[in-house]
Each structure stands twice: as C-alpha cells, then as structure tokens.
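Our platform keeps sequence and structure together, in a single record for each protein. Nothing more is needed to write down the fold, since each code stands for a local backbone conformation. An entry from our holdings is shown next, in its original layout:
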Amino acid sequence: MDLVPALEEPLQQPLKSVLGPATAKVMAEHLGLRTVGDLLHHYPRRYEERGQLTHLADLPMDEHVTVVAQVADARLHTFASARAPRGKGQRLEVTITDGSGRLQLVFFGKGVHKPHKELLPGTRAMFAGKVSVFNRRLQLAHPAYELLRGDPEESVETWAGALIPIYPATAQLESWKIGKALQTVLPTAREAADPLPESLREGRGLVPLPEALLKIHRPHTKADVEDARSRLKWDEAFVLQVALARRRHADAQLPAVARKPAPDGLLTAFDARLPFTLTDGQQRVSREIFDDLATEHPMHRLLQGEVGSGKTMVALRAMLAVVDAGGQAAMLAPTEVLAQQHHRSIVEMMGELAEGGMLGGAEQATKVVLLTGSMGAAARRRALLDLTTGEAGIVIGTHALIEDKVRFHDLGLVVVDEQHRFGVEQRDALRGKGKQPPHLLVMTATPIPRTVAMTVFGDLETSVLDQLPAGRSPIASHVVPAADKPHFLARAWERAREEVAKGHQAYIVCPRIGDEEDDPGKTGGKKPPGSPEDAAEKRPPLAVLDVADQLAKGPLQGLRVEVLHGRMHPDDKDAVMRRFAAGEADVLVATTVIEVGVNVPNATAMVIMDADRFGVSQLHQLRGRVGRGSAPGLCLLVTEMPEASPARQRLNAVASTLDGFELSRIDLEQRREGDVLGQAQSGARTSLRMLAVIEDEEIIAEARQEATAVVAADPELTGLPGLRTALDALLDEERERYLEKG
C-alpha cells in the first residue's frame, strides 16, 4: 500500500544484520513479504496477554499454532531403539496448561537438553508447532518456544498486562521472529504515505496511518488495537472502492451499440407464444436489462436468482431483444451437458422462431446454433459459417466459443451462465470478439463469495430474481447422520424407492468418479485417526461407480440405475441425460456434472453422499435440481461427520433454509472472501487483511460513497498522490488485468 522509497526497500537489504538472507527468503517465499512496506502491513492475527493463557481446548488439528502457556511438569524418559539399542534413547515429555486444557510437548534425542534445562514447572513461554494426535491426546512434537521473562525494570502488572502480537506464521518462521523483524522496521512507518484524503480522515476521526501502524504492532492497550483496526479497515475499504469506482467511471466512457428491440419483432412474437405469464420479478428485471441495452455504454449487470427462478427466460428475452436490433447474442455455459441442455430448451421455447432460413420457420425467426468442443467437423464448420454471416442470431456454447477461429458478424450481448465456472480471461476473450465492447450479463444462482463480495462492494449493477415461478414446489432438506444413526441411511434408500414407486425419479450425487484415473485421496500409510471426525475426513470420498454398483445390487435392486460423470464421452453423457429426462431410468448416480441447469421436472428426490465434502453454494445448487415440477422435492444430505463438527453445522444451515442469499452469507463467513480482486476463491490469499466483507458492510458502503465522490471530482487522482501510491500497490499487474476484465 505504499510506494514511499523507505517502505519499498527489499527486506533483504535493510534487515541484513537482523534477518539475514535466509529469513528474508522465507518471508518472501512463505508469506509473500518482500518489502519493508509488506512487512508493516503483515498485521497480528490476535494478541495474547502475558497474564492470560491461550485456550488449549480449542486447538485445530494439523495446523501450525502459537500458544502462550505454563509448564505443569517435565519428565525425561530413556528408551531402547534401533539408533540407541542400549536404552540410551531420550525423550522429554513436557505438559503445558492454561487452566482450560493440557497439551503435551515432546522432544527427542539431542534436542532434549536445552528444553530440559529451560522448561521447568511454572515457566511461562510461547510455543509454536503443528498440532497432532498421539494416543488420542493432542501434542506438539519439537515445538519452537520463546520464554516469557519480565524486564527487570518492569513492574509485574505492566509485564503481565502487555499485549503480545501473534502473527500469521509458518513452520519455517515463528510468530516472535516476525515480531522481532517488525521491531527493526517499525521506525520507517513514520514515512508511510497516507492514502486517505485529509478531510475524510478528520471527518471520521481516524488516526493517521503511521500512528495506526505503530499501534497495530506495538499496542499498549486494547483501545490502541481498536484505533488501529478502525483506521486500517478504512484504508482497505476506501482504496478498493476507489479502484472499483475508477473502473465504473472508465466503463461509463466506453462506447457500445445501443440495442433496442424492434416493435412487433422477434421478442414480441416470442412473448405472444409463451404459455404462461412472466412473474413480476422477471418483468422488472427484464425492464432493467432493456434499459441498459438501450444505452451507448456497455451493460455490466449481474443477474442473481434463486435456483429455478427463471433466469434463463430473462436472459433469452435479452438475447432476442439484441437479435431484434440487428446484433448477435452468445451464451457461455460451463459444461457441454449444460450447453446442450440450454440449446435444447431454448429451441423448444422458441419453436418456429428458432428456424430462421428454414422451411416452416417464422417470418421473424433467427437461427440458434450450438458450438462445443466435441462437435463433428462438418457441424462445426456449419455453425462457424452461420456466426460469420450473421445467419445465427443466437449461439450457445462452452469455452469453444472463445477460440480464435470463431468470428461473429456483430456480437452485441454476452450472457455468462454461472460466473464462478469461468475465468475472467475467458469472459474477456469473448467480449473481445465484438466490433465494440458487447453488453455483458452474468447469471448466477447462488451468490458465491467473490460475487457476494463484489456485490457488497457494488462494482456490478445487480438485478435480483427472488420469486419462484407459479407451480414450483418446496424442497424439504434433511441431514442424514450415517455414522451416528445407520438406520437413517437405510430409510433414505426406502424414501428413494417410494418416490420411484410414485412414478418419480431420483438423483444420487457422489464427490468422486471412482475409475482408475481417479485419485482416491492420499491417505495411504497414515496412523489411525484419533477421532470420528478424522475417520470421516481421511476416508476417500465415495465414488459414483462404487455406489451405483452397491445400490443396484442392494437397497435399490430392481430399479433402473444409470451413471453420469465428467469423464464419459459427451455423446454418452447426452444419451444418459436424454434417457433420464424421458423417464427411461429411475435413478441417476452422478458427480456434480448435474449441478447447474439440468432440468428434469419428474425428479423429486436427491441423496447427496459425503455431503460435507461439498461447499454450501454447491449443495444449494445441487438441491435445486429437484422440486422443479408440481410434486414436492426431497434432498437428503448424508454425512459421517459427528454432531458437533463445523461440517455438520454447515449442513444443518443448508437444510434449514432455501434462501440462497442467506446461504451465501454463511458460506462467506466460513470461507472468508477469497481475494476480492484476485482469483482465489478459497480465502487463502486475500488483499483484505483487516476487512471482513460481511462484518464490515457498513464501512464498505460508506467507503463506496466517499470513493465515488473522489473519483467523480478527480478521476486521475492528480491531487491525491498518497492514494495513487496505495492504488498502485493494491493493483499489481495481475489484479489490474483482473479488475479491468470484470
């Protein structure tokens, strides 16, 4: 966030005497810290008071932790081993406690001497290591430690009350070493350029940036930490909002062809043949989209809708409006199954209006073509020709649409289905195929974290469809705890049989395919897990081929069971989907290839195996495949995870609500927002160090207003050098490209 020379200095140089090249290398490789400025913005994760101890009862398994605790006892054992056959092997076992729990530390061999002398009962220290389980007890093997000794001149109270910053650390570099490195660079914080305009900072009572950096790393009181956090959150929110406001401003300057539907054209003819009335929501959202399409700047709109709320209908009407206005529309689908399905359902909905240039085609008709990677050469040539000549007004395809060979006559609208399945580069390549930037409509059924984050940040214009079309049935969802209550699982298979007996169909979803190319989970040769949760997590996920086989021979014997997964030949996949849609199969055992867009109204039940292996949004998507007809839907989430585990809580949340927006908030709170400006969805890498999207919505909304005003008054930020500096640091090249592409 700073381009001030002192803060730009590489860590290896100013810290040579303290860190040395090895430490600087670890910081760069494992923590992404390369400059003094990077290190200053590596904030403590939390603070420990010397007088208080960490909760040992809550330690996470297999994670690198730093704890503050007191030695309860230390025992040196000797034993015989291959290396020390005469019983001269040494093992030091130290028990530390915090009053709430105990944790065992073990040291072996020559590593026992120093801790044996230093870790005497009553000693307080910080310990860092990876939590593992041995004999069903938590332990740290060979942890690094730092004794906590009071300064001789300090009073006991001051020493006990001092806040110890605990930094995000790695096995190669403990928290206290990062703290010592920070001690060295902290004086340069005074030179940090302040990105906030002075009027904003004073108006909101925020401390200056140098003061905030000093207080976050060396707080005397908890109030210092609060002051610093408030200020640093504002920095992140404001700088990010300025980046987004500048992009909105630049988008508004781009030229695009206005697309107004012709009166009595294709759209009017289509609406006249609809056998139902559009919901109020569909009509409202269509108006918002048509207003955008009629302007001479590219539309940049996100269409959020519950599973089954009729997004495809809204998108199709937008495409027809563009074709009416003489342009072409492209719909980008994430999978071949989905592209074929969209093509089929759009051609069915349009009837003779999709038969442009053919015998029996209506007067206003256009051609609707499909383009996927697995098409035969002749069909592909024909589709490409129809696009180049403009004969095809609508094309539906997978990323095959992005290839260089694909040329459009006049691309006016790009519809992207399920944004989170497409890289920004792919969307951008398709947008680049228009003579001028085409309008862009992104559809998503569940606001996934990055989308929610972007929506909260207000970068895309958003339309929301929150009504379900008439005649849709509610879906009942239940968690099936297979390990605690095996009879519940037996009942799940009975329920599937009952649905089939009523003339309906069922999906069974598994996380894995199960053929020999599949990775069954790298679990070989591990020690037996210590808890039911470990057992459930370390077992390879259930596989389609195994489950289908077991069901066909067991609980679902006599039913017509078919399988569907991503490694099947596209023609075979399509054939299976057609048979299932036609009611020629009772049960479809599948991977998540059915997650989006698959529409079989007669399928009423879904059993999701190892449901804890899927994300919240994914489960909500999958569940949306049932209850699409007039009969009520049933979704059973099967898991072996124990009652109190976070995974079970997540599944309970999914079972308790059908509101995708509510679920996306839960998802976001659990996974963090990922990098709002980068490609990580997992939350592992984030430009937000202080800001939490859901918690800090208010700050973000206020920062957006401030940023919009600043950019409107001075788009180039010529009067705000500190802010330009912060933007340059935030938008390194990769993020700059990403942001530009939307």
In short: The chain has 26 helices and 21 strands.
